[in-house]
Amino acid sequence: MSKNWKTRTRAVHGGTRRSQYGEVSEAIYLTQGFVYESAEAAEARFIEAGEDEFIYARYGNPTVRMFEERIALLEGAEDAFATASGMAAVSGALTSMLKAGDHVVSARALFGSCLYILEDILSRYGVEVTFVDGTDLDQWRAAIRPDTRAVFFESVSNPTLEVIDIAAVSELAHAVGATVLVDNVFATPVFSKAIEQGADVVIYSATKHIDGQGRVLGGVVLGTREFIRKTLEPYLKHTGGAMSPFNAWVLLKGLETMGLRVNVQATNALSVAEAVKGHAAVERVLYPGLEEHPQNALCQAQMGKGGTVLSLDLKGGQPAAFAFLDALQIGVISNNLGDAKTIVTHPATTTHQRLTEDQRADLGISRGLVRVSLGIEDAGDLVDDVLQALDKAVNI
Questions:
Q1: Overall average pLDDT of the 107-114 stretch
Q2: How confident is the model at residue 119 (pLDDT cuts 50, 70, 90)?
Q3: Is the pTM of this model over 0.70?
Q4: Which residues touch 17 (CB under 8 Å, ≥6 apart)?
Q5: pLDDT (tens digit, 9 = 90+) per residue, 277-287?
Q6: What average pLDDT does range 113-141 have in this prediction?
Q7: With helix as H, strand as E and coil as C, how does the chain read?
Q8: Which pLDDT score is estimated for 135?
Q9: Is 36:46 a contact under the CB 8 Å cutoff?
Q10: What is the mean pLDDT of residues 287-298?
Q11: What pLDDT does 91 receive?
Q12: CA-to-CA distance for 47 and 372, rounded, in angstroms?
């Protein structure tokens, strides 16, 4: 592969392994195991498998490896390990490197399942976790200690869309030798520069923009070859969070069109965000692509665009939010994001429902907050649909 290839070319051709048949579309290797030419060959492979040698699908698979290599090329990472889901990637990345007595500093604004990993699971096994306001560098500075082992945050938080300064937090963490782990799903591999900006480990739910068409689950962890192969791989291959070869093939197909999709989605998100400002039903519009967003300049520096998701805080609370969701004709109600279809979510009663009212209030997740993940539909149609649905939510 040419080192000079740009992102879109790498997204189509990177990591391709062709069989003796010379197929155009990547092959799906639906096998759980592999045959060895001799007992001696089996012994040698278990001691050290070669670059294109495989042992068991839980450890690796040719189709999965194509996906790992392709996304590593897009992200600018040395290596990657694909997982069964985005949460398998988050939990695997954290759990594989932490032990009892370690200290972690994390942004407070996280997806509900990420909070569960940090608050419930890691603390259960003796890991100390300190939570901070991710946008406040003074809080990071105060919380990071000489014995801090890792810092963790979403580069753009779910669902309030706060943008965290990757370079600044990484500098603080690296000063004490801590590893920087970034959940980068809202930034996407297209807009992402997380490793270039200082992240050591980047995590994606491939279910989102990478598939982007509502078909399969998947996750991936990217980082140095040392971290992926010496720390993460032993943990994941023994605990079983492997990606299905079929899912890997679907995700390879998703990577081919991801750049085209997310650029349209980001354009649509900005169009809708601009159109709904000042609407009678709307208390506030949360979208990093708007100039008035408090981290707009940082978002443009880190991503170049505002991303594919916006959130609306409606004045009428939950009744207004439900009226808005129910009135939409294009947007569908679901809890996924990053899809080719526009998807709307009420976080307080779905993705973040396990949190207490006080916790949601601390995170800015009101009963009136609605997350809108923009699809690739016509921008004018989306604006019209959102505006007519907001009209139904006035004075409720």
A1: 91
A2: very high
A3: yes
A4: 26, 27, 52, 62, 65, 66
A5: 999 999 999 99
A6: 96
A7: CCCCCCHHHHHHHCCCCCCCCCCCCCCCCCCCECCCCCHHHHHHHHHCCCCCCCCECCCCCHHHHHHHHHHHHHHCCCEEEEECCHHHHHHHHHHHHCCCCCEEEEECCCCHHHHHHHHHHHHHCCCEEEEECCCCHHHHHHHCCCCEEEEEEECECCCCCCECCHHHHHHHHHCCCCEEEEECCCCHHHHCCCCCCCCCEEEEECHHHHHCCCCCCCEEEEECHHHHHHHHHHHHHHHCCECCHHHHHHHHHHHHHHHHHHHHHHHHHHHHHHHHCCCCCEEEEECCCCCCCCCHHHHHHHCCCCCCEEEEEECCHHHHHHHHHHHCCCCEECCCCCCCCCEEECHHHCCCCCCCHHHHHHHCCCCCEEEEECCCCCHHHHHHHHHHHHHHCCCC
A8: 97
A9: no
A10: 97
A11: 97
A12: 49
| pLDDT value for 40 | 95
- Angle, CA of 345, 114 and 375, to the nearest 5°: 30
pLDDT band at 101 (very low <50, low <70, confident <90, very high): very high
Query: Domain 259-392 - what CATH class?
Result: alpha beta
The answer, yes or no, to whether residue 370 has pLDDT greater than 80, is: yes
Query: What are the structure tokens assigned to 73, written together?
Result: 């090329």
Domain limits, the chain = 7-254, 259-392
Q: Rounded mean pLDDT of the chain?
A: 95
Question: Is there a shared CATH topology between the 7-254 domain and the 259-392 domain?
Answer: no
Fold of the domain built from segment(s) 7-254: Aspartate Aminotransferase; domain 2 (3.40.640)
